[in-house]
Predict the 3D structure of the following.
Amino acid sequence: MNESVEKRSAGCARMLGVQAAAYVVFIVVALLLSAVRGSMSTTVVYGLAAIALVVLVVFHVCWPFRAGVADRIIGMVTGLLSLVFAATTLGEKLVPTNEKILNDDLMRNTYPMMCWAAAVAGLLVLLTVVSFGRQMLREERSHLIRALSHCVTGGAASISLAGWAFLPHVVVTGQFVEGEASTGKFVALIVAMIVVALLLAYASVFWMKELDPAEDAREPWVGVAMLPVMLFGLVVFAAALLVQIVGC
């Protein structure tokens, strides 16, 4: 019994270590590229998108759920589309610019986020419809609810991952923050983000203990480690949007 507990604890520690490393890579890449090219340079966005792509691939290779190859493909495709909308101007086709947006500072500054939010809404609807249709097409529909929830969870996390592309908006705010009040608000924002990351890490320990992957799964604990990092993309997006609305 003690040996089993020790083994499980070691597995959780290893999972948390990989998770922490993924966070560090995102932050270090954002800071280094910002220092070299400027915080709002497209180079920073592309660099973060490249890291996100690696995380996306690792997650789907180390799939931690009991779902088939088709379910992984659905999540991979929606995740890739989300990254494209976050890192390029493709989202402008969903939310075309107009005079009102161009003349309003707040709307102009939050326009890239508006475009991605519209894309995310569409992708989540598409994910739900396609995932449900995929389950209905199965000849053997045992564990239908579990398979559907696993597919949707993996796809939603994949879509959320692209939110990391908005980290430069938070970085540039920190670089130019002035005054005691503004500094206090920015510090509070960073603290809140850290708290959410810790809560997700805490939740991932329980996910690790309840892990029940497919028999042929490759290192599913790595997939569990990536899951909170992917979901944290929404936190980054929310923080980037908040600094534009509230200001620091």
The two ends are 52 Å apart (CA to CA). DSSP finds ten helices and no strands in the chain. Residues 2-37 form the longest helix (36 residues).
